[in-house]
Write a structure and sequence with these properties.
By secondary structure, the protein is α/β, with parallel strands linked by helices. It is built from 13 helices and 21 strands. It has a domain of 87 residues: ANL, C-terminal domain (GMP Synthetase, Chain A, domain 3, 2-Layer Sandwich). It has an eleven-stranded mixed β-sheet, sandwiched between helices. The chain has a four-stranded mixed β-sheet with strand order 18-17-16-21, covered by helices on one side. Helix 2 packs across helix 6. The longest helix is centred in the N-terminal third of the chain and has 22 residues.
């Protein structure tokens, strides 16, 4: 990709001036963590696995002393974390962790000595079950940023190269202070945000004009969004090129979406696997590969058995199939040990590379028509998250208008929620308030979906 001189100047300013100044001012430590991860991933897998296993034992042992939930759990099971350093199989003596347990235990999932720490909350997406809030301290947040930097450098995207991020456009106008902070952040990250709401031809054409004007090296967004853009470009212009790499995240990248995006937008598609619970944990860094490299110095992977019908959907001759289970190794504010992600995958090992994920299944997002416009469910989710009072939602389709079914947080009032939603979509959508027992689940494993039949 040709980098225009003014873009190069802006990129160099971001990488060598704005970003270092911002990280120093915020007392963040990212560069050293990225260098450490690069060195770890360069080690032979046998050595790296041994070191990660030691880190696993240390993390689990630490949690058993400092986190009330694990302290009580280990005592009830007479579990000795030190055994993990000799054999990671001892991890099987611990039960799996789920979102329900996190919600139920609340602050007992967090370290007791957290007073004075800078804490960041991150809401899970809800595509694999009812949402929960995951908390990071600054150290853990810096690790998450370092992993993202490392992953992007692995595909040739450096900080001075411009990136573009797709974000939801909200009806409300943000306060000036928030807009200034976001502008400064984008300057430091050498990033541009493109805001969108619906997938009408006019909106998609406007998006493409913005992409061409910015000429990024890398575009980050949901595959469903870029897929709609690719379809529009193929139909309206016969395709087009304005960036080198599309980094897909947040939902399942379907093979037909990858093919359409690569062909119509003439770019390389890189699939990353990340979660609000851990950040980026696997990345398609090897060009032409069919797998995602697991960053095992950051998260320890396992596979939990699932029923036969689901396992057959991801059967892979080179990996163990089932539900992906992760233990984070870098978040000591809220350690997650043996966490069931809700995503199906095959976990295997590639020579000279290490743990790899094949054939991820899950995190499906849909497109819903409201008031004559098509909206992605991740956009609707972003809108509802703005209210701060929605625990979960589903949309029942098939009737005259979609039915938005909402599970409210205990502090929420129906009247306030309904008033805000009517401001957005008027009478183009029906509202139904439900509790968690009324959520419709799909398939043999009762898989959560945002869109269900009416």
């Amino acid at each position: 990709m040709l980098i225009f001189p003014h873009h190069l100047a802006q990129g160099l300013l971001a990488e060598f001036v704005a970003y270092p100044l911002a990280t120093r001012r915020e007392k963040r430590e990212i560069a050293s963590k990225e260098a450490w991860l690069k060195a770890e991933m360069a080690r032979p897998f046998a050595e790296r696995r041994q070191r990660s296993q030691k880190a696993l034992a240390e993390l689990v042992g630490w949690a058993g002393v400092h986190v009330p939930y694990y302290k009580d759990l280990f005592a009830s099971l007479n579990f000795d974390p030190a055994k993990l350093e000799q054999d990671a199989g001892w991890l099987n003596d611990l039960p799996y962790l789920t979102k329900d347990i996190i919600r139920e235990q609340g602050e007992r999932m967090m370290r007791q000595d957290r007073e004075g720490l800078r804490i960041h909350g991150c809401k899970t997406g809800g595509s694999t079950g009812v949402s929960a809030i995951i908390y990071y301290d600054q150290e853990a947040a810096d690790w998450s940023s370092a992993v993202t930097h490392y992953a992007r450098r692995s595909v040739g995207k450096h900080h001075f190269m411009r990136e573009l991020h797709f974000a939801s456009r909200f009806p409300e106008k943000f306060p000036l202070r928030a807009r200034v902070i976001e502008h400064i952040k984008c300057l430091c990250m050498n990033r541009t945000n493109i805001f969108f709401d619906d997938f009408s031809p006019a909106s998609l054409e406007a998006i493409w004009r913005q992409v061409r004007r910015n000429r990024p090296v890398l575009v980050h967004g949901h595959p469903s969004t870029l897929y709609q853009l690719a379809l529009h470009m193929a139909d309206a212009h016969g395709g087009g090129k304005a960036f080198d790499i599309f980094e897909s995240s947040g939902e399942l990248l379907e093979p037909h979406q990858r093919r359409t995006i690569e062909t119509a937008l003439r770019c390389r598609v890189v699939d990353r696997y990340g979660l609000a619970e851990f950040g980026v944990v696997a990345y398609e860094g090897h060009k032409g590969s069919t797998w995602r490299d697991v960053y095992d110095p950051i998260a320890w992977p396992e596979i939990a058995a699932v029923d036969g019908s689901d396992a057959s959907a991801i059967a892979h001759e080179r990996g163990q199939s089932g539900e992906l289970v992760l233990t984070g190794l870098k978040n000591r504010l809220m350690p997650l040990i043996r966490y069931r992600t809700g995503d199906l995958a095959a976990l295997g090992e590639e020579p000279d590379r290490g743990f790899v994920l094949y054939d991820l299944v899950g995190r499906i997002h849909d497109v819903v028509r409201i008031g004559g416009k098509d909206y992605a469910t991740h956009y609707i989710q972003d809108m509802l998250d703005r209210l701060g009072s929605i625990r979960e939602f589903q949309i029942a389709v098939g009737g005259a208008v979609p039915v938005l079914r909402l599970v409210l947080e205990p502090h929420a009032t129906r009247e306030e929620v309904e008033a805000r939603i009517r401001q957005w979509w008027g009478q183009s959508i029906e509202l139904e308030f439900i509790d968690t027992t009324q959520i419709q689940l799909q398939g043999g494993r009762a898989k959560f979906r945002h869109v269900v039949p009416a």
